[in-house]
C-alpha cells in the first residue's frame, strides 16, 4: 500500500524547523576612538537568548566619498578598522550565536581626522605639531 507524505511548511515558508532558540536581539554598535586612520568599533546584543556569542561581523563603508564595504569579523566583539584620513564612514554590525545571526545594528556614522597624532609620527615622543600647517615635525 502506498501512502502520501506531506512535507510540513514552517513559519517563514521554509521546510526546516530551525532552532529551538531564537536568534539574538538586534545588535548595537558603538564607535569608540576615531583617529587619523583607525576607528575602534564594538558590537553587542542586549539578549543572546542565553547562548554565548560565537562571532561578530562589522561592515564599514566610506560614505563621503562613497565606496565599497569592508567586512571585519571578531570573536571578541571589538575591531580596530583600518581607514583613510578625512573620510566619512558608515558601519553596521551583527552578533552570531549557535541559533543564528541577529538583525543588523542601526547605522553609525563617523569621520576620520585630517591630522595625524604627532606621537604616532616617525619620531614618536620627539614630534611636535605645527597648528598652522597640521604637519608633524621632529
Q: What would your notes on this structure say?
A:
By secondary structure, this protein is mainly beta. It is 0% helix and 42% strand. The strands form three sheets. Strands 3, 4, 6, 7 and 8 form a five-stranded antiparallel β-sheet that branches. A three-stranded antiparallel β-sheet has the order 1-2-5, with no helix packed on it. The chain is elongated. The N and C termini lie far apart (91 Å).
How are the secondary structure elements laid out?
Blueprint: E1 27-34, E2 38-45, E3 55-64, E4 70-74, E5 78-82, E6 88-97, E7 100-101, E8 108-111, E9 128-130, E10 135-137
Antiparallel strand pairs: 1-2, 2-5, 3-4, 3-6, 6-7, 6-8, 9-10
Keywords:
138 residues; mainly beta; 5-stranded antiparallel β-sheet; 3-stranded antiparallel β-sheet; 0% helix; elongated
Q: What can be said about this structure in brief?
A:
By secondary structure, the protein is mainly β. The protein is built from no helices and 10 strands.
Terminal-residue CA separation: 91 Å
Number of strands: 10
Poorly predicted tracts of residues: none
Given the structure, what is the number of helices? 0
Helix/strand/pairing class, anyone? mainly beta
Shape: elongated
Strand content: 35-45%
Order of helices and strands: EEEEEEEEEE
Largest sheet, in brief, is: 5 strands, antiparallel
Mean pLDDT: 83
* Proportion of residues in helical segments: under 10%
Rg result: 22 Å
Amino acid at each position: 500500500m502506498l501512502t502520501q507524505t506531506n512535507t510540513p511548511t514552517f513559519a517563514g515558508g521554509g521546510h526546516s524547523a530551525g532552532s529551538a532558540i531564537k536568534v539574538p536581539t538586534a545588535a548595537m554598535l558603538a564607535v569608540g576612538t576615531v583617529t587619523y586612520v583607525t576607528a575602534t568599533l564594538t558590537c553587542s546584543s542586549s539578549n543572546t537568548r542565553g547562548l554565548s556569542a560565537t562571532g561578530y561581523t562589522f561592515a564599514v563603508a566610506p560614505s563621503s566619498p562613497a565606496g565599497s564595504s569592508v567586512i571585519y569579523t571578531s570573536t571578541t566583539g571589538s575591531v580596530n578598522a583600518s581607514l583613510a584620513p578625512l573620510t566619512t564612514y558608515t558601519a553596521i554590525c551583527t552578533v552570531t550565536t549557535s541559533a543564528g545571526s541577529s538583525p543588523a545594528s542601526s547605522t553609525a556614522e563617523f569621520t576620520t581626522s585630517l591630522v595625524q597624532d604627532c606621537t604616532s609620527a616617525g619620531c614618536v615622543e620627539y614630534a611636535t605639531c605645527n597648528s598652522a600647517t597640521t604637519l608633524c615635525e621632529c
